[in-house]
Write a structure and sequence with these properties.
The chain has a single domain, classed as Domain of unknown function (DUF427) (Metal Binding Protein, Guanine Nucleotide Exchange Factor, Chain A, Beta Complex), CATH 2.170.150. It contains no helices and 9 strands. It is globular, with a radius of gyration of 12 Å. It is mostly beta strands.
């Protein structure tokens, strides 16, 4: 699977985990030069508190377009640190 934004592959992995229709990419699959930590946090009743990244490609920003669970609840331990995308990031094979 590839995550693409602004015509650039920002993550690629053959080992994503699908939860609620979202592909979660392993942390090592990200091209970290495009990711900047965000101050945004949200809560999921069964996964826990999510943290976010802003994606920056060619000086264009996609605010809070990637999220992950640094310390998930027990039911979501298997996606600890894995990253999912939204806000126009394409996930394709």
């Amino acid at each position: 699977m590839k995550a693409i934004w602004n015509n650039t592959v920002i993550a690629e992995s053959k080992e994503t985990i699908i939860i609620e229709g979202n592909h979660y990419f392993p942390p090592a699959s990200l091209n970290m030069e495009y990711f900047k930590p965000s101050i945004k946090h949200t809560n999921c009743h069964w996964k826990g508190q999510a943290s976010y990244y802003t994606i920056i490609v060619d000086k264009e920003k996609n605010e809070d377009a990637a999220w992950f669970y640094p310390d998930p609840k027990e039911l979501a331990k298997h996606i600890k640190g894995y990253i999912a995308f939204w806000r126009g990031v394409e996930v394709v094979e």
